[in-house]
Amino acid sequence: MPTTRTTVRASYFSAAPCLNARALQIRPHIVHANDWQTGLIPALLQIEYRSQLRFSQTASIFTIHNLAFQGNFPRWEMELTGLDWKYFNWEQMEFWGKLSLLKTGVVFADIITTVSPTYAREIQKPEFGCGMDGVLRSRAEDLVGILNGVDTDVWNPRTDPYLPRRYDVSTVSEGKAACKEVLQSRFSLPQRRDVPLFGMVSRITDQKGFDLIIGCAEALCRLDLQMVFLGTGDYQYEAALTELARRHPEKVGVMIGFDDALAHLIEGGADSYLMPSRYEPCGLNQMYSQLYGTVPVVRAVGGLADTVIDATPENIQANRANGFSFDEYTADACMTECAPRWPLSATRSFGTN
To answer: Residue 212 has what DSSP assignment?
Structure first.
């Protein structure tokens, strides 16, 4: 649970924009707050500042990037917000006996946004609502999902300085083959062009589907494929991946840590990208992968459902397909999509944007 020091920091941080606007004689049209760390801002605007001429026309937008991170504090820390205790009630700032800064932002903001249309709908349901689905349903008319974008100055195979060979849509096969060779070497895997190579750069947590990956890993390792993983997270999954690589050094490579250059190389050198998330507000790596001609394999939730069109025969025929997706959150469903049941050449058919 966050500490009193965290509550004080969040309270001061939220008060600062309003105080600075007043000191600098600014009349803001919109104040955009993000996540629980700034959840007090919409409340301060509505309760303390809206009556002042300078803020009388100021609207607030509150963006939720991941509903699971809520900023829930012991009830007595309401005192640290500077707001009247009367607002500590089930309709406003109280959440199951605790002070919730995320709920505060949701309740008091004029407009609420999140990072994909599907996630905006999902968080109004108990399965993905993290206990706040009722609050969000009550604000449904003011809740909108806006899909994240990617920085194509940073993620672009035509200009990427981390790739041993850059490429575009006309040179994708040659470029990716060169990157794949270097990637396999980096993880001490056999350098084979014909073997499907799956990559994953991620926080190593339940949210990202590592329980599914570990659940079907041994079965996958009986197939003719390779997998590389980069990231940090829960020790149980770090240890399981490390042990998997020890048992199957010719099929699995693991790097526990953060390495931006290696992350770019994985996107460039892998044939497919794994993203079987339990939930995913938006996700960026599936979009990086599409730019790099690396076919994403995802679970159809949140922003993954909004950005990945499954490679069914109909979608391929209509030239709409840009990845593989599955619905059930099971190791068997993940296994079915990861198994190399399509020719390796199919991973080139979607092209590189």
So the answer is: H
Please say whether the beta carbons of 196 and 226 come within 8 A: yes
| Tokens linked to 278 | 């339990």
Low-confidence stretches of the chain (pLDDT < 70) are: 1-3, 340-353
Contact indicator for 183, 270 with CB cutoff of 8 Å = yes
DSSP string, 145-172: E------TTTS-TTT-TTSSS---TTSH
Q: Can you give the pLDDT at residue 340?
A: 57
DSSP single-letter state for residue 204: B
* Token pair for 59: 């609207």
CA 307 vs. chain centroid, Å, equals 12
- Please check whether residues 13 and 132 belong to one and the same domain: yes
Residue 107's domain spans which residues? 4-145
Question: In this structure, are 134 and 177 located in the same domain?
Answer: no
For the full predicted model, state whether its pTM sits above 0.85. Answer: yes
pLDDT tens digits, 132-149:
999 999 999 999 999 999
- Match 């300078």 to its residue by tokens: 54
What 3-state class would DSSP assign to 225?
coil
**How many domains is the chain built from?**
2
- pLDDT at residue 350, as a whole number: 41
Q: Is residue 111 part of a domain?
A: yes
Domain check: are 179 and 312 in the same one? yes
Q: Does 280 lie in the same domain as 196?
A: yes
